[in-house]
Amino acid sequence: MADLRDLYQEVILDHSKSPRNFKRPDDADGQAEGHNPLCGDRLTVFFRRSGDRLTEVSFQGSGCAISVASASMMTEAVSGDTTEEVVRKFDDFHALVTGKLDPETAPERLGKLAVFSGVGEFPVRVKCATLPWHTLRAALADQKQPVSSE
Predict the structure, then answer these.
(1) What gap in Å lies between CA 145 and CA 2, rounded to an integer?
(2) Most buried residue, 47, 53, 102, 146, by most Cβ within 10 Å?
(3) pTM over 0.85
């Protein structure tokens, strides 16, 4: 189990130090801002869409390692998904980090996002991990008010 935990930490550190899809596209179809006052995380999530499918998801901002890694991995996990698939992944991810999804089944449901299974052991970090996801859902709903994890 320690080896798996070390691997998870490596993946999270890699994504926090070298986030994927960290950019502001010129032609985004939607965007939303998110803020975690407790941790100071601030990010904006952008998406481009073709029909009901997200063709590109990106973000910009700053935050703790968990928040940045979650945003980075989220953008990779949902690019190409339909809105319905994004909502299902959001629900599964939220269940995982709040301890309501069995970590044994997480890899088949969430793929690489299963690395966040340990976040549930630190309840204050759940808000960091879920902020990008709440922000993406707000962007999909064309919500103009910034999302807060408080």
Answers:
(1) 41
(2) 47
(3) yes
Tokens read off for 29:
């179809």
Helix, coil or strand: residue 144 = coil
Three-state DSSP at 10 gives helix
CATH code at position 142: 3.90.1010.10
Q: At 142, phi and psi to the nearest 5?
A: 60, 40
Domain carrying residue 135: 2-148
Count of the separate structural domains present in the chain: 1
Q: How many residues can be counted in the chain?
A: 150
What is the reported pLDDT for 149? 79
67: phi then psi, degrees, rounded to nearest 5: -65, -45
Q: Is the dihedral of CA 100, 102, 106, 108 positive or negative?
A: negative
Tell me: the pLDDT tens digits for 66-80? 999 999 999 999 999
- The stretches in the chain having pLDDT less than 50 are 1
